[in-house]
Amino acid sequence: MKKATLLINCPDKKGIIATVTNFILEKKGNTTYIEQHVDHEVGEFFMRLACEFDHDEEKFALFKKAFNEQIAIPYAMNWEMYNPKKAAKMAIFVSKYDHCLYDILSRHASGELHVKIPLIISNHPDLEAVAKRFNIPFKHIPVTKETKAASEATQLKLLEEYKIDFIVLARYMQIISPGFVDKYRNKIINIHHSFLPAFPGAKPYHSAYKRGVKIIGATSHYVTSDLDEGPIIEQEIVRVSHIHNVQDFILKGRDLEKIVLSKAIQYHLQRKVWVYNNKTVIFS
Amino acid sequence: MKKATLLINCPDKKGIIATVTNFILEKKGNTTYIEQHVDHEVGEFFMRLACEFDHDEEKFALFKKAFNEQIAIPYAMNWEMYNPKKAAKMAIFVSKYDHCLYDILSRHASGELHVKIPLIISNHPDLEAVAKRFNIPFKHIPVTKETKAASEATQLKLLEEYKIDFIVLARYMQIISPGFVDKYRNKIINIHHSFLPAFPGAKPYHSAYKRGVKIIGATSHYVTSDLDEGPIIEQEIVRVSHIHNVQDFILKGRDLEKIVLSKAIQYHLQRKVWVYNNKTVIFS
Amino acid sequence: MKKATLLINCPDKKGIIATVTNFILEKKGNTTYIEQHVDHEVGEFFMRLACEFDHDEEKFALFKKAFNEQIAIPYAMNWEMYNPKKAAKMAIFVSKYDHCLYDILSRHASGELHVKIPLIISNHPDLEAVAKRFNIPFKHIPVTKETKAASEATQLKLLEEYKIDFIVLARYMQIISPGFVDKYRNKIINIHHSFLPAFPGAKPYHSAYKRGVKIIGATSHYVTSDLDEGPIIEQEIVRVSHIHNVQDFILKGRDLEKIVLSKAIQYHLQRKVWVYNNKTVIFS
Amino acid sequence: MKKATLLINCPDKKGIIATVTNFILEKKGNTTYIEQHVDHEVGEFFMRLACEFDHDEEKFALFKKAFNEQIAIPYAMNWEMYNPKKAAKMAIFVSKYDHCLYDILSRHASGELHVKIPLIISNHPDLEAVAKRFNIPFKHIPVTKETKAASEATQLKLLEEYKIDFIVLARYMQIISPGFVDKYRNKIINIHHSFLPAFPGAKPYHSAYKRGVKIIGATSHYVTSDLDEGPIIEQEIVRVSHIHNVQDFILKGRDLEKIVLSKAIQYHLQRKVWVYNNKTVIFS
């Protein structure tokens, strides 16, 4: 049996579920799981459907062609048939903080993440030792105001060369330029060390301390050209009190950042995220 | 448009979703939402499907008859078509603690709970004043070892008389006898003041304090004839530390109990709970 | 034995703890509990000290006089000796939402809050029925742009008449004018239905929904003349997802608001809150 | 200035705090922080006191001698003066699961843990590669029923040789014998993958799944000769639902285990844990 996951997004319309599941049944497939969501406010339909077929590759290609013509086009679907066995290729961008990098590489080494990591890129040389521990190629590409355009060109060339599917900014302390972001739309995951939209920008733990909040957070989101305003994938929080100073916030935040970023990577890898209206639908 | 919610549980089989959604489409209905679960270990299928029809009551009855004959019987379905507008009738059993009772009656008065509360039953007279504040009939039925059977008979008669659909034990400090439980299978919701299966039985906060746990909890579950071992509907926890004594545990636990019990009531009212193998499937 | 709680705030200095505890020992008192905090960044010292004495009222007054002259003045202390047995007087301000009011009055009726509630004030008549259920005097004082000054004057007169110690805004939908706030500095507790500083001002649940956050929150704080920027007392959060619409946010938020506001009231009542630099120290 | 942390546990008695802080003041020391707890039920007093002195090593030794004679002996104190700058020596015991080991070694490499790790011991050879990545000596000591006594003797010899202060069982799947436990009383930290006292012993995730709980947890505790019944240091939980199978529980549990174990190690390292009556006092 060949397993496939069908991802569908289209304007909401009567009969979509019946039409799709019936089509699969007719083609001798079996729908094993449906998760579905309708945003009634904007009339948008989302579905993640797991199915299995016993036919061969050729017939499978025919199925996709027929699905496109008979279902996807009439319903104006944004769709994809995704093979859950294939591992995507992820690049990690870092600067000097090592905790998120250690976390991702440890999870990868433990077999938690079904992904290939062909490349780590950094604007500083500091974390090369960490990359070496896990035998991942490390490219040091310094970034200054003057060299930014050239550096990004070098980065983009590497990403192409290594056939990178998506990028994780694991506390990468540089702003990605809009042109770069456009090339990897909804494919750059950032971790911001605050409970967005509170405390965007630099030094959020310092701002949180100054404001006297009782809870701090971390947020993973897709990068857009508006700083820290991209679609939120995951958030988590931890309690603080007057006994904690900024250093304590930073230390507590490290665990938050690791957990939140790794969850976002996992959701992305498992193709459970839909982006629309600068928000996300995350299937479970 | 008439809205209906279809609840289905049956052995897992190829094509169920397509068959059901297609049947609804053929009968001029529209499936607006599906939530579905398969327990692959035991091969059990669950579905909660919201749909709407524009036809009249008579045609609707015909639809149900046809669904039963053509779909439900062949698939060996345990099924129900449920009208989300109809309010169920709930009886509350209490003893002396008033916090859960206040919470339920306040939510009801605020319009949070789509339910009728025709009856409060207690083995003590203490909470009659609370019932009066909210204008709910209060029946004092004392229970002693000797009178237990007679008292339960009186309770059951009242429940029948008031056409009660389900019962909430809001810190009711009596064990319900198996005969009573059988009559309201999966229809008696209890709140236990521990994180089950830890600390079943009497005085769980005292036991938790003695054991030195760092987190305490509360659990709502359907009552079965095995004390505190029924299917769990909801659980919640709160952190404690060495500075808290048993009284603090009890006080902190009050909020937990209220939240957990009211969530369980809400899930039950909205028909989001399936029970099987002494566990629950809770649709969202 | 007479129990007393000593609250001290002063510039941090060598030997404060020893000096204070020694003074109490010399006066035949016993220090039973100390909670202490130093904000090293600003050099501020805070202490909450529970002690007991076996002497009479007259000696106790002498003790306070001696403490003031020999300890408090030399150390430039902001201090108070507080009798934990005395119940403070709290006024509740409401508008139309009833859930926080029900919660506070239920807790009061259950004996959870060691406080007197002589007065509920509202700019709408709607919640008089709730006040009546709990036998609390309810004053309807309408507020319009034109009558605002006069209405606040009426409110202030009532607060004085009833000897109110502090005010709880239990979803009171009016902005308190700076003159009013000045009279009850750090004595007006508000509940804001967002995770401040995110989403200050009106309709925070709508803004949170629009931003696509994965967690919503509620914040209790002392009211200052800057809207939603006063010192935070307590915050709590709950997870949301794409399946929840604004109405779901509002419903989930109700429980948050109740819990967070009641905790803030409890901390305030138990004199566990120190305010400085627009932040709070909350002793446990 | 020399900083020191004074740890005191003794029967509760009038005047302890004043006596201790006054003694420090007399000896030209400054008490900078006190955290204190009294368990009134059993009459036990606990204090963690940070102080600083400007005198030299010799005078410091005299201070300790004087403190012991004049304060500690009269009050029957169990006490210690601890130098927060000195790093303890920790051995890690593992079997085959690598996630906790990666987590501890990554934190250590990041500088989060103020500790030396001279030694990893395992009953399996599998994790040697992980140890090598972080350049920590790894000793493979197989354990079978027959060799258990000899293996433990070898382990104990190594622990002595490396002057190990305390041991962390990072998912070590062997029961430590009572004789071994006695030698490292309150010095062996275990991570158990359930919310104790629920689901002690083997395969707790499987038991939790079978019971249908809505929340799973992890617990770190000191090892005693009663399996999974030692004093609890830290616990944490995560929500689960019917959509999660045992494998999901195990995967979610990994993050819990890492967080809970690392917190317990941190508390232990910072000397914030007191053990009594099979419970812990954890200062903040």
Structural commentary:
Chains A, B, C, D: Its EC number is 3.5.1.10. Chains A, B, C, D: This is Formyltetrahydrofolate deformylase. Chains A, B, C, D: Belongs to the PurU family. The structure is a homotetramer of 284-residue chains. Chain A is an alpha/beta fold and 284 residues long. The first copy, chain A, folds into 2 domains: 2-82, Alpha-Beta Plaits (2-Layer Sandwich), CATH 3.30.70.260; 88-282, Rossmann fold (3-Layer(aba) Sandwich). Helix content of chain A is 34%, strand content 30%. The first copy, chain A, is built from 8 helices and 13 strands. The first copy, chain A, has helices at residues 16-26, 57-72, 99-110, 128-133, 148-161, 178-183, 204-211, 246-269, and strands at 2-11, 30-39, 44-53, 78-82, 88-94, 115-122, 138-140, 166-169, 188-192, 215-222, 232-239, 273-276, 279-282. In chain A, the strands form 3 sheets. A 7-stranded mixed beta sheet of chain A has the order 7-6-5-8-9-10-11. Chain A has a 4-stranded antiparallel beta sheet with strand order 2-3-1-4, covered by helices on one side. In chain A, strands 12-13 form a two-stranded antiparallel sheet. In chain A, strand 8 (166-169), helix 6 and strand 9 (188-192) form a beta-alpha-beta unit. Chain A is globular. The two termini of chain A are 24 Å apart. The model of chain A has no long low-confidence stretch (mean pLDDT 95).
